[in-house]
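Hello again, I could really use a second opinion on something today. I owe you a coffee for this, so here goes:
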Amino acid sequence: MYTNLPHPTIKTNVEHAIREAHAYEQQQQLQQHGLRQTTLFLVPDEDDRFTWSRTPHTGRTPDTGSLTVEQLIQHLHFIVDNIFLLIQDRTVRRQCVGLPMGTNASPEIATLTLYWVEANFIDKLLLENTREAQLHAHTHRFIDDVLTWNTLPPPPDIYGLEWKETTNTDNTCTFLGTTISTSQANLKIGIFDKALEWTFKVICYPSATSNAPAHQAAGVFTGQLTRFARACNNVLQRSNSHCTCFNEVIIYLA
């Protein structure tokens, strides 16, 4: 998906999304605080996260100050228009279509690009078929993965991209490393281990006799247990995931 987004579409859609966010914040300040509409600035906090402010902020360095909407849009255009790749033959080429998956801003830019398409689709659907629009109330997106309930995402021609339905034959689905299923009125979320579907054995941890630092494998192990505990919403799925992880560690120790 990253590599198929046209640059004009990226710049247009993300610019619309930025201006919409600015207009929404202006409206919120008017309703909550009775403050007249004025230009807002994006100001970095202590964690380098930006929030809206009515006053500009001067940072310790030129690149840590506040941003106006126009400046943010200029940065967006610069990023999209200045993507260069070093090919194996030492040739430098500029990427004219899509975004590279390795750049920090690509996930957010790609998500906002598709957000604007989906927002317009829902706005139009609200005027034509309110009931159908309500079916998308619990639709979730993470970059190029979409989770919907009892409905399908907008048609491919709306995006200008093809998408593939990945609902399993048993009516379960895989979303962001989890398996989601329904049982009567309950929703069950478990861990999807893609390696189990492969025809070859996957070495998840280095051998205990290798020169790899022991704390690395231990960190992966505790991180996996934490992920299982947070992702699984039922005891059976959590226990199965933990047992699989323990078996992998036993193999590692052997």
Residues 7-33 form the longest helix (27 residues). The chain is about 45% helix and 15% strand. The chain has two domains: 2-150, 173-253.
